Amino acid sequence: MSRQMVRPGGRSARVQASVHAAVHELASEVGRAALTVPLVAQRAGVTPSTIYRRWGDLQELLSDVAVMRLRPDTAPGDHGSLASDLTAWAEQFLDEMAHPAGRAYIRDALLGDPDGSNAGQCSAYAADQITFILTRAAERGERTPDVETVVDRVVAPMMYRILFRPDGLDAAYARRLVAELLDPSDPSDPNGQNGPRDPSDPSGPTGP
Amino acid sequence: MSRQMVRPGGRSARVQASVHAAVHELASEVGRAALTVPLVAQRAGVTPSTIYRRWGDLQELLSDVAVMRLRPDTAPGDHGSLASDLTAWAEQFLDEMAHPAGRAYIRDALLGDPDGSNAGQCSAYAADQITFILTRAAERGERTPDVETVVDRVVAPMMYRILFRPDGLDAAYARRLVAELLDPSDPSDPNGQNGPRDPSDPSGPTGP
């Protein structure tokens, strides 16, 4: 994130805001594949060298823009219980990330990210949202898993499949991940080893 | 994989082999950042237009090369039980993928992959290895989870953390994922909800 670590306000913040806005506008007008640094600079009213100096190259600029777009803008909703809060969050996360725009942002965030800080920021956003949900559940007196376990059991499978194995992803998959996390002793599967992933089960991703 | 679907043997296969070899040689001589299509073409003894026609651009070529390098070259070892086979496989997978060369191949495979087929191939390699392990275990008479569950519970967390949350990844993490998959009723954690992820536990990834 070093390139984004700029003082709030002032010229630096105005340049960032106008360059990010230029990327959004141009991406919808001419498509992302047609974006160039000179084109973005012209729209933003800055010189190309300002962009190169601050972001390095177009890929790094797109990565920063993607991370900004992936930042959640609201706290997770309160549905009264850990299971329902986490289920609603996971469904929304999968819906946003598996959407073509979400996939494009995830790819951009990973690509122009030589030191991995933008990918780390994406993961931190998810972990922060989960921590919020777990803290609220603990305050209700509910027993909660720890945040890293939720990352491993709910976030990681969704992101892995979005990137590597996207067939069959749907809200039922997000719900099942949460259900298996919170109730590994599902009566239909006394040992908790087999998820309901019969190959004929239309709700389950089967992958290539 | 459409660009790779060429007839074995013949000029097409020779071109692929010499271009892939040129990428490897040049990457070690001048570094990946300095690779260009004309440079690769010159070393491979083909024209740049041959490369553009077949691979589209450098990024797609690097993606194809990465997938070839990520292909396992041996079947998973037989250590006598499902737990030991899967543990050994997961440790080796994490070691290879979290290594700087492995991370670079994963990134390359994802980047120059407009239709997602190379990422799907990477995932299929892992699923094939797991299927091999599970089939052998079932033949021994062992109870086995299904392959998609192993992908969700072992492969996905490792790949997610390699890409998004790499701090603290080590062999103990791979072993723990397998142990929690095969024995969710670990006596140290009767409800199977909390992995041994105390923040002070040096074996556990804590993320940013």
Automatic annotation (TrEMBL), chains A, B:
Gene3D superfamilies given in the database record: Homeodomain-like, Tetracycline Repressor, domain 2
GO MF annotation list: DNA-binding transcription factor activity; transcription cis-regulatory region binding
Renumbered residue ranges of the record's region Disordered: 182-208
Keywords from the named record: DNA-binding, Transcription, Transcription regulation
DNA-binding segment(s): 36-55
InterPro entries noted in UniProt: Homeodomain-like_sf, HTH-type_TetR-like_transc_reg, HTH_TetR, Tet_transcr_reg_TetR-rel_C_sf, TetR_C
UniProt cross-references to PROSITE patterns, sorted A to Z: HTH_TETR_2
Superkingdom of this protein's organism: Bacteria
Residue ranges annotated for the HTH tetR-type domain, each copy included: 13-73
Entry's transmembrane regions: none
UniProt name for this protein: TetR family transcriptional regulator
Lineage: Bacteria, Bacillati, Actinomycetota, Actinomycetes, Kitasatosporales
